[in-house]
TrEMBL record:
Organism superkingdom: Eukaryota
Protein name: CSON002740 protein
Organism for this UniProt entry: Culicoides sonorensis
SUPFAM superfamilies documented for this protein: Immunoglobulin
Domain Ig-like: 41-79
Cross-referenced PROSITE patterns: IG_LIKE
Pfam families per the UniProt record, alphabetical: Ig_3
One GO CC annotation: neuron projection
UniProt KW keywords: Disulfide bond, Immunoglobulin domain, Repeat
InterPro entries: Ig-like_dom (IPR007110), Ig-like_dom_sf (IPR036179), Ig-like_fold (IPR013783), Neural/epithelial_adhesion (IPR051170)
Length: 128
């Protein structure tokens, strides 16, 4: 009995999909196997906010774009550990309305998926 194997070296995201092994007999026989390539979360700097400074009482919008597979879940929290609520669950934007002096500090953006996690920090300075 012979065994045939398909080996994909240096797997890339574009290799995700199903592959078929086929035996040309009558009737034809086949076996299908699928590959799901997981890609660690990555924060896209050029599509994310830099540190910002706003006047007290103004709104602040911080944006952080993340990619990966499975798609990352987005969470913002303060450096002191308090979670920040997003207006849209899963949104990449943190919209903080009516900024107060309590809001000042470093905010951490987390993007998580089932296999990997990563984070980035953004500084939010409040001017009186």
């Amino acid at each position: 009995m012979r065994t045939w194997r398909l080996r994909i070296r240096q797997l890339r995201e574009s290799d995700r999909g199903c592959y078929m092994c086929q035996i040309n007999t009558s009737p034809m026989k086949k076996q299908i196997g699928c590959i799901d390539v997981q890609v660690p979360p990555n924060i896209v700097d050029e599509e994310s906010s830099a540190d910002i400074a706003v006047q007290e009482g103004e709104d602040a919008i911080l944006t952080c774009r993340a990619t990966g597979h499975p798609p990352p879940r987005v969470t913002w929290k303060r450096e002191d550990g308090d979670f920040m609520l997003l207006r849209k669950p899963g949104s990449r934007e943190l919209i903080k309305g009516k900024i107060s002096l309590y809001s000042t500090g470093t905010l951490l953006f987390f993007n998580l998926n089932d296999s990997f996690n990563s984070h980035i920090s953004k500084e939010l300075q409040i001017n009186e």
